[in-house]
Structure formats: C-alpha cells, structure tokens
Amino acid sequence: MKRILVPTDFSECATVASDMALLVARRLGAELLFLHLGIDKSGYTHVPGKSITHVDAESGQARYQLALLVQKAEAAGVKARAELVLGSGREKIEDYIAPYQIDGLVMGSHGATGFRETIIGSNTQRVIRNATVPALVVKTPFVKAEIENIVFASRFKEDVKTSIRLTVDFASNWNAKIHLLFINLVSHLIDDRIARLMMSKEVEPYPETQFTMSITETNDKEFGITDFASKSGADLVAVALVPQSTVGRLINPNLAEQLINHAPFPVLIIP
After folding, report:
1. Which residues pair with 269 in a beta bridge?
2. Which of 28, 56, 180, 243 has its CA 20 to 30 Å from the CA of residue 249?
3. Ordered domains of the chain (ranges, CATH)
4. What pLDDT sits at residue 49?
C-alpha cells in the first residue's frame, strides 16, 4: 500500500480508523488521503429572509476537521492530503479509488445486527463489496505499536495466491508472523494431512516468511476464526472476500462481512 484512502465522517469510529491508518502509513511509508463526503445544500430552497449560513458553517467545520487530520499526520512524518466532496448524497467511497490511484483502504465500522445486517449491511460492508483494493477495517482502538501476529484464514479451496501474496507483503513491513488457519468444515471434513499439504503448497514461494499452520474443525467459520485469533494473540486477521449476490448473503452470509460486524480485532479484507 502506497496511497491509502481513509473515509471519515469525524465520528469516534472514524477517528479509530484514522489512528490505525496513521500507524500503518508510518510503517509502510504510504501517503494518506482523508475523504469526507458531504451533501451540497447550496441549492436547497429555504424560507425567504431566513439565514442559510449553517450550510457554510457545516462545510467550514468539515474543512477544519480535515485540516486537523492532515496536520496530525504530517506531525507524525506521514504525507497526507484531504478531499471534501459536497454532492447529492449518492456519491460512493469506492468511486474515488481509481481516480486517486488508491491501493488500500482503512475504514472504521460500527457493525450491523439483526435485519440491517442480513438485508442491508453496514456502510463499510457496502464499500468493501465493491472495492478493488485491500481494505483494513477496525472497530476498536488499536493500542499496540506493532503488528506482530497475523492470522490468514481460509478453506484454501479457492485461489488464494493473490491473497497470500498481499498478506505476506503487508506482514513483511512489520516482520510479523503469519498464522495460516485452515477452516475445516465438519460437514465437509478434509484429512489433516491433506489440509496441511494444501497450506504448504500456497506458501512455497515465501521461504523467508515466518508461517505457522493450524486447523480448526467447525461449522461456524466466524467462531472458529475468532476463537483461534483470541487464543493465538492475533493482532489482525486477513481473509479473502468472496463475492456474493444479495440472495447468496441471505442463505450463506459472507465470512468477511460477518467478521467486520462482530470481530473485535482489525480485519484485512482482500478482494
């Protein structure tokens, strides 16, 4: 990641993401782009004689908050810039990835539960479904100064070569150890020896990277990952995003989106 997009609405959740982005950018030598999408109210109708200065006040406050984020980054030695977009409210964060040559996202997540989780999903979920670059999603403040342990979880049935490569690249900046976790579904069990062979094959191109290999037998992929991550002291979990239709998410919720909603640790989503 050399240019990281950090969407912000200046909330507590967004502040958590901004702090994480700063930590990552310092280590990776990356540039940060803070993006705030607002609504252009200049064309709104109003009662004649009534002041509409609140519109300018809102945009002015947004510019001020963005300037503070840039100043904080630059004070930490990180190159940063900000973009304030005032539009119709239909603008999408992911639409700014290609024009600004973004190769990574750092976002906060409030999570979603119940009907909203099943049918709609959180704002962050909607972004990562369409994002073409890795997205690091955080829900709580990251209090450590280093990322030392990364879990890469997969069933290793799909092509994970790109996901493994990007995870290795990310980990190399921290000299972090990567813990491969094979999700062995109880309903479709694979012999442990075969599972380990599948993992070994994927990491053959990286002889200098520190790997461990573990297997979890479960029918609840989210629980299996969360339980292993907790017990292994993981600082971050990386998973590949498997595209799904809306109907598909109803029948079999996407693992990456489940983790974003519920997991307490940072999640690196790789498209």
Report:
1. 135, 239
2. 180
3. 3-108 (3.40.50.620), 149-265 (3.40.50.620)
4. 45
